Amino acid sequence: MSDILNTDILDTDIVNPVEPILRSDRIPHIWCPGCGIGTTVNSFARALVDSNIDLGSLALVSGIGCTGRVAGYVKLDSFHTTHGRAIPFATGLKLANPKLNVVVYSGDGDLSAIGGNHLIHAARRNIDLKVICVNNLIYAMTGGQTAPTTPDHSTTSTNPYGVFEPSFNLPHLVEAAGAVYVARWTTFHVRQLSRSISEAFKKKGFSFIEVISPCPTLYQRRNKMGDGLDAMKYYKEKSKVRHGAPTGEVGLTMTGEIIVGKFVDRDRPDYETMMRSQFRESLGERFVEQTEMVCS
Amino acid sequence: MPKGRVSIVVERCKACGFCVEFCPSHVLALSSAFNSKGYHPPHVVHPEKCSGCDLCGMYCPDFAICATKVDPAGHPAARTAAQPAGQAAGQTMKKATPAKGGSK
Ligand SMILES: Cc1ncc(C[n+]2csc(CCOP(=O)(O)OP(=O)(O)O)c2C)c(N)n1
Ligand code: SF4
Ligand code: SF4
Ligand code: SF4
Ligand SMILES: [Mg+2]
What we know:
- The structure holds 2 protein chains of 2 kinds.
- Chain A has an 8-stranded mixed β-sheet with strand order 2-1-3-4-6-5-8-7, sandwiched between helices.
- The longest helix of chain A is centred in the N-terminal third of the chain and has 14 residues, at 37-50.
- Chain A has helices at residues 37-50, 70-73, 86-96, 108-114, 116-125, 170-177, 190-202, 216-220, 228-238, 271-283, and strands at 58-62, 77-80, 101-107, 129-135, 181-186, 207-212, 239-241, 258-265.
- By secondary structure, chain A is α/β, with parallel strands linked by helices.
- Chain A has one domain (15-286): 3-Layer(aba) Sandwich (Rossmann fold).
- In chain A, α1 (37-50) crosses α7 (190-202), α4 (108-114) crosses α5 and α5 (116-125) crosses α6 (170-177).
- The model of chain A has no long low-confidence stretch (mean pLDDT 95).
- Chain B is an alpha+beta fold.
- Chain B has a domain at 4-69: 2-Layer Sandwich (Alpha-Beta Plaits), CATH 3.30.70.
- Chain B contains 4 helices and 4 strands; from the N terminus they run βαββαβαα.
- Chain B has helices spanning 18-22, 55-59, 78-81, 89-95; strands spanning 4-8, 28-30, 42-44, 65-69.
- In chain B, the strands form 2 sheets. Chain B has a two-stranded antiparallel ribbon with strand order 1-4. A two-stranded antiparallel sheet of chain B has the order 2-3.
- Chain B is elongated and about 35 Å long.
- Chain B starts with a strand and ends in a 9-residue tail after the last helix.
- Classes of the chains: A alpha/beta, B alpha+beta.
- The interface between A and B is large, with 52 and 58 residues.
- The structure holds thiamine diphosphate, iron/sulfur cluster (SF4) (3 copies) and magnesium ion.
- One iron/sulfur cluster binds at residues 13-19, 41-42, 59-60, 62, 64-65 of chain B.
């Protein structure tokens, strides 16, 4: 640590490119020092800026949890739903207004535990949603309870003698259920994450991006894994990029290798396309294509 | 001649050290000064080495730091120069009013 704060360098005529995406009046945010959620939002915001997406056509839906707070920090049409229900809320938005780009931004617990059924069925139906799952391997907001994603042998507030139940491998789960785009990065992979998010926006169908992210306060402290920066160094050291890796082989362990990359990129008709073609087929002339949705 | 310039909104920083650790040119260090929340924000110790890559800005979980490329005269390059001065990050902070209700 050096001695003085060299304030000459503080430069207020440089604009942070993510500023237009943020509700600046709510920042500093509530996330802990070294929490990775803010870094994921940073990559997300940069993806929006870089892909020149029309922000007016974008809606972001979160569930409940530390990650769920994202909905409150982005200057977009956003909604903080009840726990586990981000995907059904987002599905409703998308069906009512198919032109919307709908992003679901939530935690591993919210999406794969209480919301687990919604996750697999949205993937099966290939609803055109971009799901960003911040996986900090724990139920953070409520005190560090074991989540379906918590790795074997780690200690949590509900497994003080160690977790012994097998955890979900989320990329494998959503691929098996039918997702058309599946990627995993960590908060160390800021550029790759941002690129993946931009890529998912170009897909039509259920896209799932898992981001492994530090929770120094409720996951790492109990497991003596240091602070946020220690987690970042671990990600840097132990991540291996393997695009197209069979998702069955990318399960996470507590301290082992983290396989990252784009695992799945395929095409199949999304829910709306299948619905319209079914209606056209069975109703023939009687089916009236509704192109403009009027919401009042 | 530095190719980039860094801007830090000291009051947003929570001293995680991500920017310091992952700056490829070792431009930054955490200072010993405190911000009003008691964190030690980073400062620039090797301005001449900055490439303006903005990796520090991408890593920051608190949107407290960013950087831009500068021309040989030291002026911020296209992206930021095009913006009206009033939209600068630091000024947005000053103008901000506290959020009323709504937050959960
Ligand atoms: C119906 C319901 N059950 C339980 C809770 C309590 N609860 C709030 S957040 C949370 C877990 C969140 O975990 P995750 O989605 O991983 O988010 P994180 O905090 O880790 O980002 C739980 C169980 C709730 N809010 N509502
Ligand atoms: S408890 Fe964990 S996930 Fe929640 S803000 Fe703190 S570090 Fe982040
Ligand atoms: S812009 Fe790049 S070189 Fe300059 S301080 Fe940031 S990370 Fe370092
Ligand atoms: S990354 Fe951001 S919050 Fe962390 S030390 Fe640097 S400026 Fe502060
Ligand atoms: Mg979690």
